[in-house]
Amino acid sequence: MPQYDVDLFVIGAGSGGVRASRVAAAHGAKVAVAEEYRVGGTCVIRGCVPKKLLVYGAHFAEDLADARRFGWNVPDCGFDWTVLRDNVLEEVKRIEGVYGETLANNKVELIKERAIVTGPHGVRLAGGREVTAKYILIATGATPDVPECPGHEHGFTSNEAFDLDEVPRRIVIAGAGYIANEFAGIFHQFGSHVTLVNRTDVILRGYDEQIRDRLLQIATMKGITFKFHAAFEKVEKQDDGSLLVHVSGGHEPIACDALMFATGRRPLTAGLGLESAGITLDDRGAIPVDEDSKTGCDSIYAVGDVTNRVQLTPVAIREGQAFADTLFGNKPHRVNYDCIPSAVFSHPPLAGVGLTEAQAKNKFGSVRTYTSDFRAMKNVLAGRHERSLYKLVVHSETDVVLGIHMIGPDAPEILQAAAIAVKAGLTKQDFDDTVALHPSMAEELVLMR
Description:
- The chain is globular.
- The chain is α/β, with parallel strands linked by helices.
- It folds into three domains: 6-143 and 266-328, FAD/NAD(P)-binding domain (3-Layer(bba) Sandwich), CATH 3.50.50.60; 152-263, 3-Layer(bba) Sandwich (FAD/NAD(P)-binding domain), CATH 3.50.50; 348-446, Enolase-like, domain 1.
- Helix 1 runs parallel beside helix 7 and helix 3 packs antiparallel against helix 4 (81-105).
- It is built from eleven helices and 22 strands.
- The protein has helices at 15-26, 41-46, 48-67, 81-105, 178-189, 209-222, 313-328, 357-364, 377-382, 411-423, 428-432; strands at 6-11, 31-34, 109-111, 115-119, 122-125, 130-138, 142-144, 156-157, 170-174, 193-197, 225-227, 232-237, 243-247, 254-256, 258-261, 265-267, 300-302, 342-344, 350-354, 367-374, 388-395, 401-407.
- Strands 1, 2, 3, 4, 5, 6 and 17 form a seven-stranded mixed sheet that branches.
- The chain starts with 5 loop residues before the first strand and ends in a 17-residue tail after the last helix.
């Protein structure tokens, strides 16, 4: 039998790579993981964790204003971006340390260098060290995709958004996906004038149409500007340091102080040497894998965003767990990709699970839908006219709830529990038979008739 330096070599210490590493090690494997940047990956270092902390910070703008309607003598409050920024970065550093401790406690060797594949069982580190492994796992994640236009270097991406020196007075955000809409809400609450530019007229593609239309309506009412059917032509830097963004579609050039690109993410596979193991990437640069996350090379696997299956942290974690359990724990299982809940932490947030109305009609023909369109009790007393919208998509014949879609305060928190019902295949009658928890926003889910 061939002798290898390690049983498993993982390239990338993000959520998927760390989970796979520590679980494989717990099963008795000798594991090494290489990370060229920081332990924790996109989610912990420059994604969902620091972004959610900014979302919390942004919410105080409305909460402080609303507090006056609830009897609190709140003075006019100033906002110090540098305090929030530095506290968020400190928290990210703390979590990164926890990830490192987790690897160390499980006796995983952490190598803080770039690694590339040299063959089915070989890896070369940036410092020149060669390592052999029985199995190799690629978990390098994804990286922001920036449109190629003259002057694009004057913009930044979500990777750099957490390190800004100040909140821009005017910001253009390119894109209309979840990153674009989340940062649009964040910067708006921090006092920026936000213009969101998109090459089509659809925001949040893949979410239910009624829900995303409601977000567009609310965001517009709050003062966020949308420019649709607008592709980037060029970006010019002005003498005063500001930018002039030229877009197509008959739109006037947009003057701003900062430009953020949130135009999608592509798998981070460039220069990994995968061709040395006979692995061919797809047209997006993703690594094709089978149901067990195995590539075209029997000894090399891939999990997480680098496979471009479902770009969500909890999915990467499950893929890493399934990989380690199957190969090293004698507990073979696969990830089930049905009914994965997702959320957009916009202002207000939205969330969904299961089939949208359009998807359900395409699959089953006719379906029944139930909606609740209401103002949250807190918004009523606060004098806010912002309305929440909940929606159930139900199979016409079986009465099974095929999807739940929501926009409103705490929608993601409510949706997590409701997703269990969709995953379990419960019926609309099961919802109707459940007594409402009053007064709550969540009770609307069991009161639709």
